[in-house]
Design a protein that fits this description.
The complex is a heterodimer.
Chain A: H1 2-9, H2 12-37, H3 45-63, H4 66-90, H5 95-118, H6 144-150, H7 155-173, H8 175-185, H9 187-192, H10 197-223, H11 235-246, H12 250-270, H13 278-282, H14 284-305
Chain B: H1 3-15, H2 20-46, H3 50-59, H4 65-90, H5 98-114, H6 123-150, H7 154-175, E1 198-200, E2 205-206, H8 207-225, H9 227-237, H10 239-244, H11 249-275, H12 288-298, H13 303-326, H14 334-346, H15 353-369
Antiparallel strand pairs in B: 1-2
């Protein structure tokens, strides 16, 4: 049995599964990261992904074009973050409470809308939805090993990695990105320097909503072709934890998102192995997040204690 | 304000929205009215007879005695989850482990309830309660401890532990206490001695109802009249100030976590022993812990408010269920939309603030003129 486990772990299928599973988590992670950079802890990622996943399917079904579906999902993502911004900035509500409420309602609201559209409460399988396909890259696809991993992946995966690179340039190399980071580091100082802090925070929230929404749309329009109840299943929270582990370091953020995807891939591949208890195998990704997040914070605690790094 | 002045103006203060408590009440009522108005608009879109639909949601549960009995029976364990979240939120904690603790303590309750530990119909439920309360209290400590000691993100850790506990519970039930009768996804039937009977059958009032009332009063007194309650409020509103005035954040978060865990244990036991005759991990207790957080927001972390909110939400859910029975076009999830709008509006500090400020200004001017 051990040999079969090893042969699965080093197979091409496993690598491809990781790439596929990494996309929504990376989207969630960069969504949390951009908001955190401007000083807002966006913990509503999970709910935005849920709303966008459903909106994507409905938009695609009603218009007949998957790209309209993607745009619908993004629009819903923006609406959701604007709702958060409105209640927390204009009406003085505790943003955390608003986001917790959103997360708790997301599933019921999605079920409500789904029931109105399909008459079912489980999945949107009864709607025939046009979905996004995958891309073959002309020359690369003929190279033996690289071609299999890098070519033929799903469309939004390519968009995801493009956004990862563009976002890095935006945050670290452009004046707006620098100002945005200044808002997160010290809003008062930024305000004194003539930066419109609120406007930049709203900008980063909108970007955060768009990224999270793309993660959700990926799940329902690209990875699968339906929205099903509870399909986000903690992937938004994995993005939030990746941001917690990264502590402001962009590449560690991406790396931790990929590590979480590896654990999800392990769990998915082993859940088909009947020799292992399925219930426990399903929990592997959550155990991984729990253990890694705890370990990182314990290490940080002792580093601060020994005086190696300053407390943040 | 001196004693004399307050008594002089007390009569007028009571009747005006410048009184903060009255203002909160008015805010709540207006929030509910707005939510109902939005619900009505939604009903107009999806139902053929929106007026009747809204009426059914609002007074449907009163039409039959068993409907209101169902509300009374089912709101208790929700209220416990709300109280647990209220205790944690009040002290400024964001531990969201209630959901997982409900589910995993359910497995222990099902095990005790289906095993012949005792033949006494009084002792058996008590054993279930004690087991669930101890397990709940212990497990709830973990995220709060990690947060207080190492600064781990307790929200993420507790959410992950929810998923882990759900998986562990499914495994335990399937492997150790399942019955093949139902395909191994649920536990054996509880013994008759473990089930909790009614004290007043027509309205389905059981001893659990009394337990909830006692717990509510105790929590209210603890939160408002004791040192612990004061420390909780202090840490919740201004953690830095609490730390500097000598409140141990570590001790406080562990204490509140234990209280919350024990409350979750009570809630899950109540739910299982009154509402079910066997335990299905994927069904019996799912979602109660999360609803608790919403209840604590609705009740503003006040134990009495939380219990009232739990009753009202269950009442509305029952109303929506009655409506679904009559008119299949309206799914019962419509209640969560009402709930969501009310929560967002009442947690907004500036909602209706201008109205209140105007009133305060007017009163100030009048006072000045006198």
């Amino acid at each position: 049995m051990l040999s079969s486990i090893f042969s699965t772990l080093f197979s091409m299928k496993f690598l491809i599964t990781i790439v596929r599973l990494a996309t929504p988590i990376v989207f969630a992670a960069i969504g949390t990261f951009i908001a955190a950079q401007s000083g807002i802890g966006n913990i509503a990622i999970e709910s935005i992904m849920t709303f966008a996943a459903l909106a994507g399917v409905l938009g695609s079904y009603l218009s007949g074009s998957p790209w309209i579906g993607v745009l619908t999902g993004m629009a819903i993502g923006v609406v959701t973050v604007m709702l958060i911004a409105f209640f927390s900035m204009k009406l003085g509500a505790n943003a955390f409470l608003i986001m917790i409420a959103l997360n708790t309602f997301a599933d019921s609201v999605a079920i409500f809308v789904m029931f109105l559209m399909t008459g079912e409460k489980g999945t949107t399988a009864s709607l025939t939805t046009p979905i996004l396909g995958s891309w073959d890259i002309p020359i690369i696809k003929d190279i033996p090993f690289i071609g299999e991993v890098f070519s033929g992946q799903l469309t939004l995966t390519y968009i995801c990695w493009l956004i990862v690179i563009l976002l890095f340039i935006f945050i670290y190399k452009t004046p707006t990105g620098m100002r945005l980071r200044a808002c997160g580091l010290n809003p008062d100082a930024a305000r004194t320097a003539g930066i419109n802090v609120e406007r930049l925070q709203v900008l980063s929230l909108v970007l955060s909503g768009i990224f999270a929404a793309l993660g959700g749309v990926y799940l329902s329009l690209n990875y699968l072709k339906i929205y099903s109840r509870g399909m986000v299943s903690g992937q938004g929270w994995m993005g939030v934890s990746a941001n917690g582990i990264a502590a402001g370091n962009y590449w560690i953020l991406i790396l931790s998102a990929i590590i979480f995807a590896v654990f999800r891939a392990v769990s998915i591949i082993f859940s088909s192995n009947s020799a292992l208890p399925t219930d426990l195998v399903n929990a592997i990704p959550y155990i991984a997040v729990f253990v890694i997040l705890t370990a990182v914070s314990i290490i940080n605690y002792y580093r601060v204690k020994r005086g190696k790094v300053e407390e943040q | 304000m001196t004693e004399n002045r307050s008594s002089k103006y007390s009569k007028r203060y009571k009747l005006s929205i410048s009184n903060p408590k009255l203002f909160d009440a008015i805010k709540m009522i207006i929030a509910i009215l707005i939510a109902l108005a939005i619900t009505f608009v939604i009903l107009c879109l999806i139902s053929k007879d929106p007026v009747n639909a809204l009426k059914t949601i609002l007074i449907g549960p009163l039409t039959k005695r068993r409907y209101i009995g169902a509300v009374i029976e089912s709101f208790i364990s929700f209220a416990f989850a709300g109280l647990a979240a209220g205790v944690l939120f009040k002290a400024g904690g964001f531990n969201m482990g209630a959901e997982g603790i409900y589910i995993i303590t359910g497995a222990l309750v099902a095990y005790i309830a289906s095993s012949p530990f005792t033949t006494s119909p009084i002792l058996h439920p008590i054993l279930c309660y004690i087991g669930a309360m101890i397990l709940g209290g212990l497990l709830m400590i973990i995220p709060s401890f990690l947060k207080a000691k190492f600064g781990t993100n307790e929200m993420v850790v507790s959410l992950m532990s929810n998923s882990i506990y759900a998986a562990v519970t499914a495994y335990i039930v399937r492997t150790y206490i399942a019955t093949q009768q139902r395909g191994g996804v649920s536990s054996k039937d509880y013994l008759p001695t473990a089930r909790i009977g009614y004290l007043y059958e027509p309205l389905r009032i059981s001893a659990c109802f009394i337990l909830l009332m006692v717990v509510m009063v105790i929590l209210y007194l603890v939160m408002n009249k004791t040192k612990l309650g004061y420390q909780m409020r202090l840490a919740g509103t201004n953690p830095k100030f609490a730390e500097y005035s000598g409140v141990s954040a570590f001790k406080l978060s562990i204490t509140t976590a234990i209280i919350a865990g024990v409350l979750c244990g009570m809630g899950s036991t109540t739910q299982l022993l009154t509402q079910t005759s066997y335990y299905t991990p994927a069904q019996s207790l799912v979602g109660i812990g999360f609803s608790g957080m919403l209840l604590s927001m609705l009740g503003k972390n006040n134990p009495i408010g939380i219990v009232i909110a739990a009753f009202l939400i269950k009442y509305l859910e029952q109303g929506a269920a009655v409506l679904y029975f009559v008119d299949g076009a309206v799914p019962s999830e419509i209640v969560s939309i009402v709930e969501g709008i009310v929560i967002m509006l009442i947690s907004s500090q500036y909602f209706l603030r201008r109205l209140r400020e105007r009133q305060l200004l007017k009163e100030g001017l009048e006072e000045h003129a006198e």
